[in-house]
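Predict the 3D structure for this chain.
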Amino acid sequence: MRELDPKGGARYVGYIKDLMDMLADQVGFKYNFKIADDGQYGQQTPNGWTGMIGEVLNKQADIAAGALTITGTREEVVDFTKPIMSTAVNLLVKKPQHMDMGLGYLVRPFSTDFWILLLVAIIIVGFLFFLIGRFSPYEWIKVTDEKDLRGAKNAFSLRNSYLFVLSSVTWQGFREPPRSISGRFLAAFWWIFVLFTLIAYTANLTAFLLARPEQMPLMPFKTYDDLVENNDIAVGAMAFGSTQNSLRKSRDTTLQSLWNKMSQQNSWVSSNIEGLQRVKKSDGHFVMFVESTTAEYLARKNCDVMLYGDNLFPRAYGLATQKGSAIGSLINKAILKLRENGELDMLHQRWWRFSGECSDIDGRKFSQKGDSLSSLPIYPVTLRDMAVAILLLFLGIIVAVVFLIVELIYHYVSTGGKIERPKMLDKKIFKAPKFTKKSKQAKAAKGDEEAGTSEPLTDEALEAGTSGGLEEVKET
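Done. Predicted structure below.
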C-alpha cells in the first residue's frame, strides 16, 4: 500500500512490503518498488499480457509482488514461487443497517411473496369449499329449519366456507366438518398446508423476538441463487483479474448466471479501492467479488462493510519471476524457511488480525456461531422454503376437484339422470340441545304453571319427563 510520509514523500507499507524486506534480508538483494503502468495484475489479451505479469514477461520488472493469484495460464509465461498465502473468493457487501421493525414486526417472519400467496390460497380454498357445498350431492341436506337446530344444512355457504378456512388458519375447530369425499380431501390437504405454515411462522417469529433487543438487520439475499434473481443488486468484480476469469470459465450454472448478469450490468471496477467505495455508497445495492484476504483486510479498516457468501475458487498467492530466473529458486527457499519458523504466520496476523479496529467482519459466521443469539441472521420464509407445503396444497385442490366431478357423475348415474337433493340420514345433527339439571327444573316449573299445578316435581319425575321429551324429539 502506498501512502504519504510526514515529509510529503511517498512510502510503501503493508504485508507485501514487510515480506519483501524479509526475503531481501534472507536472500541478500536490494529492490525498488514500481507500480504497474496499467494498475492491473495481469491478463492475457490479443495484444499480449497486461499488468504485472506483462511487465515481468517483457523484463520491465524482475519480480511481481502483490495479491497475485497463481493460475495455470500465468504459470505458462512466468515462474511462480511457493505460495505465500491461501485465499478464496467472497463477496464484499455493505453491512445492513439496524432498523426498528415498528408496527410491521409481526409480518416479518414471511416474505411479501409468501403473504400474497397465503391470501390467494385462502380465497381460492374458501371459494372451492363453497362450490363443493353447492354442487356436491353429498353435502346437501333436506330438512326443515325447526329440526336443523345447528344450522347444518347451511354449513358451507359462502360465509361459512371462509369461516371454516380462517378458523383452520388459527388452529380452531369448526362446527360442521365436510361430509363429501371431495370436501374432506380438500380439508385434509388444507390442514397440512396450515400446519407447515404455522410451524414456520412460529419458529421464525421466535427467532425475530429473540433478536429483537439487538434489532438485527436483514440481508437482502441469502445465497448466490438469490443474488441472481435480485435485480435491485448489481454485482461487480475487478476487471482483467483472476476472479473475473474464473467466473467466466466456471461451469456452475449459478455462477454462469451471475457472470451473465455482471456482463449485462458491466459492473467491473478498475481497482479494489474503487470497488470498496462503490460498495460503501451503494446502500446495499452493489456487492463485489473480492479475494477473501483482500476483503478481510478492507473490512478490518472499514467497519461498514463485511465478507459474505460461501468460499469460491480456492487459490493461493505467489510472487512471479521471469522464466528460468535464478532469483526464483532462492526466494522459494527463503519462503519455506519463513513458513517453518512461523514468521510468515506472524506477519499475516500482524496485518490482518491485529491491524484493524472493526469486528464482525465475516457475515458467514453469523449463521454458524456467535456470542449470543442476537448475532444470528434472520431471513423471512420465502416461497422456496415452503415449496413442499405449497405443492401439497396444489395437489389437494386438484384431487378435490377430481372427486367433485366423480361425485356429480356417480350421483347422476345412480339416480337415473335425475338431479335431486337427497335427505341425509345422519340424525345426530338434528338432536335437540342437551339441558342441565337447572334448566330441566326451570322448564318443568314453567310447565306446572301452565297446567295450574304449584307442587314442585321430584328429581325422578324430572328425569322421566326429560327422557320422554328427548325420545319424542328423536322419534320425530
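The radius of gyration is 38 Å.
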